[in-house]
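Weekly modeling sync, notes
Attendees: S.R. (lead), two postdocs, one rotation student

Agenda item 3: backlog of single-chain predictions. S.R. asked that every request posted to the team notebook include the full sequence so nobody has to chase files. The rotation student volunteered to paste the first one in as an example of the format we agreed on. Action items at the bottom.

Example entry:
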Amino acid sequence: MQAFESGSWGAPRCLQRTRARHLAALGLAALALAALAIGGASPGDAQAAQALVGATVITVSGAVHDPGVVVIGDDGAIAAVGPAASTTVPPGAVRIDLHGLRLYPGMIDAMTSLGLTEVAAVAATNDVGDIGDLNPHLRAYAAVNPDSELIPVARAGGITHALVAPGGALLRGTSGLIALDGWTWETMLVKGPVALHVGWPSMQLDRSPQAQIPIKKQLEQRAERLRHLDQLVDEARAYAQARATMGQKDTERHDEDLRYDAWGPVLRKEIPVMIHADGEREIGAALDWCARHDLRMVLAGGREADHVAPRLAHAGVPVIIDGVTGLPGRDTDPYDANYGLAGRLQAAGVKVAIASGAGAFAAAGVRNLPDLAGMSVAFGLPADAALRAVTLTPAEILGVAERMGSIEPGKQAHLIATDGDLLDIRTRVLRMWIGGKEVSLESRHTRLWEKYRARPAPPKAAGAARASARPDRTGRHALQ
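Predicted structure, as returned to the notebook:
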């Protein structure tokens, strides 16, 4: 994962592959920039004001306007929103007729590996994580491949933004929020770092007769893992204090250490620590750890979060659920344990966002985000809360709610137009705007569809057997 800001740390093989891939892309990037200089338009160029008229406008944060008008300024921000009868379209604005459609804010997937992997089963295309357990200095968003085929596929599902999170073991690195449109990771980046990610160690004990390690030894190992986490925070805080006093009289010099520098925004509470944990014991231990060290916490995963929902609600810890369609974690759980998790947490007063999940194999499923929210509705989550869980709530959790997540004046125009309810699996996303600029919904899927639907029919051989439409008694179609 390309994530080093500076310094001379040894580059592992996966970093070398990423650098090689990016260097190879520089030639193509130079050609593209040359073409733009000749006469092409850049994605960030200013454009005329637009007025989206006639659609049912679902603002998420306020009233539904049917029909409504959304005015987009030439800076890509929303200038006005309201009912068609009382909202003035400024002179000179390009009118875009959306009668019969619904207009929503673009969806935000708050946990992905988008841009870090292409084909999950091919190691050379995977840059999700790096070797080692302690990599707080890695920046996942700096390794994003803007030409990934999975990005336009996700766009076609209505997702305009995604959090790119690192994989790994204990200290994984930092994540960044990207827009799913742009030439480079720098132009796609909306905010980074967003959070420092920690894969919480297992608290489970193997009490089976086949256990290889005695229970006493397992307890000692578990306690040692927790002491190690405490030590990491204490060392990072001591480093920050030492660096802050450098230059004062009688103070020692402390060289820059990227691994400790990464903790700075966390210790200053500028960004949260995002704990990846599913089990009740793990979540409880993470809550204790964050309270002990006065850290802001966001829980990712949380398949048994409803078991500690009162503690999460009291502490104000939001949960990003990424396993809505996963199997139950225990053999005693009902089949719909994960389907109804969001509804149970919401009813307990916990702030909930729904995400597709991080990992190489999960990246291809980002496009299914609205279906995950729809599944939660079918199992108890109110429809308005489910819509909020993929728009405004993730924006609030990730610290960008002042810029996106709902259709309000002053926010950036990240919008999607659909032919039905966004959470209905039959609904199609027909148009999309990111930062006020309409973007293409073409993807590898649509290109293959157009290619093969236009293929010529094979010539029919003379005397060839014809398949009968009448099945025989076994249900099979007989050949005549």
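Discussion: group reviewed the output briefly. The first helix runs from residue 13 to 38.
Action items: rotation student to repeat for the remaining queue; S.R. to check formatting next week.
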